[in-house]
């Protein structure tokens, strides 16, 4: 039974058994015994409202009390936290079916009840849950990581703090929050920021939070939460380095093992005062702006506005005002960060830039202010001609279709008539078992209606009929009319009136001319509006830093010095499928990350051309064949066969890449965690170890040795010339360590569906 359950829980096979589903379904709050805390009888996953109710029950007189002992130390909360560690965040993987964790599986790692009791009695040993990974090199840095049990505690604390704080954060605080990721921030910049003129980003000196910062953080937490045990726990976690926050180090929000969800929320709490300060400055500025009531008249007045976006430790401040204003703003910002928050700002790299003339890099992308026509260029002459041609062709096709329909109708009508006629001749009268007259009448009436309508709609048909009917008849000659009966002449005149009324092509022509004129006017107006907008408005263009991406492509070895695809020799030791998956993981992450960029096409080219062909060449080199043979074997879509001989495709197809566009993606992980990690399969005679993905424990695992890119290339990541600026680095202590992973989890890791944060790296092995 246990093995069966484990299989269910692996993310790749998320088939839910209905009984399990029922056992752990979300029961409404009223009937659950949850509020009997902290040690209720049944342990079950909590829904967000249930957890909220639990946290709010500890609220009185503006503060929360004793959350650690009463909420975090509840087996259900701990169990829910465990569940969160394997269930992908809803924001990250929208379509992933919910995977399910059973209490048995958690119990096989540690006892939730015992852990809850330890926490409640304040004798939880944090130190025993920390593992120190030494670097493989002498004098290398070491890394302290929490084990799975401690990770559960961190997650539980994060969940509780999230409920206390999430509504208290300002709207421009992104990162580590549900639905507030990089793409949301970019969308805000694109849609809401008007006429940016000056801006700056804050660069922090690379530094870990020390006791000063931790004490400050604890004071901030204490403003809202009165819980000495929680504060002691936080201090202990920082002291033992189980939790680390390093500003300016490019590893927050990248899925590296030393970070956890708790880090994100703690940095948001730390910066919350700063956010509020900026919010205050913004409001003040808005109030200073003179108010106009213009009643719809066009105005070129643009009130000065201030905008800010903070994504964890990345801060961007924008103004639509003068340089003086941004300078003042910058000194205010730095005063708060250096004074109140005691952070070290790298003043050299915190420079003010003109939004129009310089690009600024933020969130791994490049921003610049441009006129709207750059983002939505008007159609070129060529495009307009092509469009006209297309419309004409469409019209011709429609006419052809109509003619064909008419022809067929005539044929069918004649057939019916001749059939009826024959029947009539053979028998006396038409006798049928079915009464079909009604249907036939209906059909003919429809046809007739359609024909008449088509006739009146067609300018040519009207002209054709109008000409003979209105052409100089002798009835219109004055001296003849006099000799004719008055009734006849009147009837003729009336008839002529009707002909003119219904068939006169002049009228239809006029109508068409009027419509064309209207269209022209609308077009002109649009042109005028666009021109004025171009002169008066600025919006933000977001681009992928294509130079940096190219540099990364070259550094990793996808291309040679000439920029042509080349094989990557370090990957040759991998299985075919794993080679393809590794490439797919890098490519898909790049495609996800930059999907909101104006120059997305360039990223697409890099993935679909450079990466695809580098992969084909690597496969060719591995099998000592030519590129042509490899292409023939794997096809351009890089097809492989699984154990059952079923075709598999992991790399996005050319068509798929072409169709990709901006999607409502939640926070994407940057690609640095995917490409700086090679996992080489190890062959050993030893017994297999349990899979180290959270709560997986599958024993049919295989050992993979980690080889980090910077070690393979022998470059120093802190050297800006050798390494790509802004790309994070996996900690060197993981190099050469061995990870036991089951087939599902190694696949997920290659494809970038999970990352090192989803593994218990404390169980990695140091083998020679
Ligand atoms: Zn596994």
Care to give the gist of this entry?
The chain is α+β, with helices and mostly antiparallel strands and 768 residues long. 49% of the residues lie in helices and 10% in strands.
Can you offer a commentary on this structure?
The protein is 49% helix and 10% strand. It is of the alpha+beta class and 768 residues long. Among the domains are: 127 residues, no CATH class; 161 residues, Alpha-Beta Plaits, CATH 3.30.70; 224 residues, no CATH class. The strands form seven sheets. Strands 5-10-11-6-12 form a five-stranded mixed sheet. A three-stranded mixed sheet has the order 1-2-8, with no helix packed on it. A hairpin with a 2-residue loop joins strand 1 and strand 2. The longest helix has 46 residues. The site of zinc ion has 9 residues, from helix 28.
């Amino acid at each position: 039974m246990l093995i069966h359950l484990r299989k269910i829980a692996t993310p790749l096979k998320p088939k839910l058994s209905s009984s399990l589903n029922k056992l752990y379904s979300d029961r409404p709050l009223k009937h659950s015994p949850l509020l009997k805390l902290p040690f209720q009888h049944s342990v079950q996953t909590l829904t967000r409202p249930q957890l909220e109710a639990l946290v709010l029950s500890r609220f009185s007189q503006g503060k929360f009390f004793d959350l650690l002992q009463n909420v975090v130390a509840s087996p259900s909360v701990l169990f829910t936290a465990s569940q969160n560690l394997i269930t992908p965040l809803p924001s990250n993987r929208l379509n992933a079916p919910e995977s399910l964790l059973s209490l048995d599986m958690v119990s096989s790692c540690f006892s939730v009840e015992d852990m809850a009791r330890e926490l409640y009695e304040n004798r939880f040993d944090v130190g025993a849950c920390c593992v120190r990974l030494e670097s493989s090199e002498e004098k290398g840095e070491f890394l302290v990581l929490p084990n799975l049990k401690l990770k559960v505690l961190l997650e539980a604390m994060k969940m509780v703090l999230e409920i206390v704080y999430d509504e208290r954060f300002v709207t421009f605080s992104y990162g580590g929050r549900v639905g507030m990721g990089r793409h949301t921030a970019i969308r805000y910049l694109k849609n809401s920021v008007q006429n940016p003129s000056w801006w700056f980003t804050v660069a922090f000196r690379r530094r870990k939070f020390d006791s000063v910062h931790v004490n400050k953080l604890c004071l901030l937490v204490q403003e809202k939460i009165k819980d000495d045990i929680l504060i002691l726990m936080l201090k202990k976690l920082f002291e033992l380095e189980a939790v680390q926050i390093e500003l300016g180090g490019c590893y927050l929000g990248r899925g590296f093992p030393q970070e956890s969800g708790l880090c994100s929320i703690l940095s948001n709490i730390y910066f919350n005062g700063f956010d509020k300060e900026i919010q205050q400055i913004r409001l003040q500025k808005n109030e200073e702006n003179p108010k106009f009531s213009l009643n719809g008249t066009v105005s070129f007045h643009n009130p000065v506005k201030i905008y800010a976006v903070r994504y964890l430790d990345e801060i961007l401040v924008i103004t639509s005002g003068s340089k003086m204003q941004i300078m003042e703003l910058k000194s205010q910002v730095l005063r708060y960060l250096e004074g109140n928050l005691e952070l070290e700002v790298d003043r050299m790299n915190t420079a003010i830039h003109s939004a129009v003339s310089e690009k600024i890099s933020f969130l791994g992308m490049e921003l610049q202010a441009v006129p709207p026509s750059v983002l939505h260029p008007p159609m070129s002459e060529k495009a307009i001609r092509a469009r006209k041609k297309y419309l004409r062709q469409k019209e011709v096709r429609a006419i052809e279709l109509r003619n064909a329909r008419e022809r067929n109708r005539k044929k069918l009508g004649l057939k019916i008539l001749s059939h009826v006629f024959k029947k009539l001749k053979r028998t006396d009268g038409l006798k049928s078992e079915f009464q079909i007259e009604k249907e036939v009448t209906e059909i003919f009436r429809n046809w007739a209606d359609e024909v008449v309508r088509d006739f009146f709609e067609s300018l040519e048909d009207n002209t054709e009929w109008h000409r003979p009917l209105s052409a100089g008849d002798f009835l219109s000659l004055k001296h003849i009319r006099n000799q004719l009966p008055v009734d006849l002449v009147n009837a003729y005149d009336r008839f002529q009136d009707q002909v003119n009324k219904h068939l006169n092509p002049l009228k239809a022509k006029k109508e068409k001319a009027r419509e064309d004129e209207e269209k022209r006017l609308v077009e002109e107006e649009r042109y005028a509006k666009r021109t004025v907008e171009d002169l008066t408005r600025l919006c933000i263009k977001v681009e992928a830093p294509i130079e940096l991406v190219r540099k990364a492509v070259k550094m990793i070895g996808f291309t040679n010095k000439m920029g042509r695809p080349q094989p990557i020799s370090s990957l040759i030791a991998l299985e075919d499928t794993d080679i393809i998956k590794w490439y797919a993981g890098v490519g898909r992450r790049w495609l996800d990350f930059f999907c909101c960029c104006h120059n997305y096409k360039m990223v697409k080219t890099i993935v679909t051309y450079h990466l695809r062909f580098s992969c084909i060449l690597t496969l060719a080199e591995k099998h000592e064949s030519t590129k042509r043979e490899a292409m023939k074997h794997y096809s351009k879509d890089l097809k492989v066969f699984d154990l059952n001989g079923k075709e598999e495709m992991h790399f996005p197809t050319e068509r798929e890449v072409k169709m990709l566009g901006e999607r409502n993606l939640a926070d994407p992980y940057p690609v640095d965690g995917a490409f700086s990690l090679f996992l080489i399969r190890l062959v050993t005679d030893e017994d297999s170890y349990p899979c180290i993905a959270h709560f997986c424990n599958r024993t049919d695992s295989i050992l993979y040795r980690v080889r980090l890119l910077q070690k393979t290339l022998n470059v120093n990541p802190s050297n800006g010339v050798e390494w790509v600026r802004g790309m994070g680095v996996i900690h060197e202590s993981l190099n050469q360590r061995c990870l036991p992973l089951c087939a599902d989890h190694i696949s997920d890791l290659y494809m970038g569906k999970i990352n090192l944060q989803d593994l218990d790296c404390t169980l990695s092995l140091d083998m020679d």
